[in-house]
Amino acid sequence: MLRQYNVVLYWPSSLTAIPTGLAPAQINAWVRERAAAGVPMYELDRTALAALKPDLVLTQDLCRVCALPAGTVEDAGRAIGTDAAVLSLDPRCLSDVFFDIEAVAKAAGAAAVADRLAGVPLRAIDSATYVVQAGPGLVDGIEALAWAFHPDAVPPPPPGRIASAG
């Protein structure tokens, strides 16, 4: 039986500090200037965080442009006196995404559903990897396409997202 969990999502009044109306190249320039100056891309509203009284805060450290670093969230938690767990999700390949799903389920007290959420897809990936790596002729005509780069990513996304299957 699945337990029901109350999930509260906090969306700040402004979802971005990036000035509106910029072309992608201008956004990249804006981000690069802030990064070079050591100016954070985001500010954590500690008052709002304290009011939420979270048990668990999810963030990531792969891209400092995409979200607050885990250390910033942990520092804010200590400053407001919360004992909320901070879980940084940093997947570098497809399997890591499912391992992160398991980690979130366990951190949220839902370890019983972790296998259904992540274990089944992981076993499917293992099976697909076996078929692809089994040798020429077993599977014909499989191709994978990926963006060479993501125009808004600083730095570009990690390489090898598709290569895990061979």
Structure description:
It is built from five helices and two strands; from the N terminus they run ααβαβαα. It has 166 residues and is mainly alpha-helical. It has two domains: 1-90, no CATH class; 94-136 and 146-166, no CATH class. The protein has a two-stranded parallel sheet. β1, α3 (70-80) and β2 form a beta-alpha-beta unit. The two termini are 37 Å apart.
Quickly list its features.
single chain, 166 residues, mainly alpha, 2 domains, disordered N terminus
What is the radius of gyration? 20 Å
Cα end-to-end separation? 37 Å
Low-pLDDT windows of residues: 1-14, 145-158
Please provide the ordered H/E string of secondary-structure elements. Answer: HHEHEHH
Beta content: under 5%
Mean pLDDT: 72
Query: Judging from the principal axes of the Cα atoms, what is the shape?
Result: flat
Looking across the biggest beta sheet, what order are the strands in? 1-2
Largest sheet, in brief, is:
2 strands, parallel
Number of distinct beta strands:
2
Number of helices: 5
The total domain count is: 2
Structural class: mainly alpha
Fraction of helical residues: 40-55%
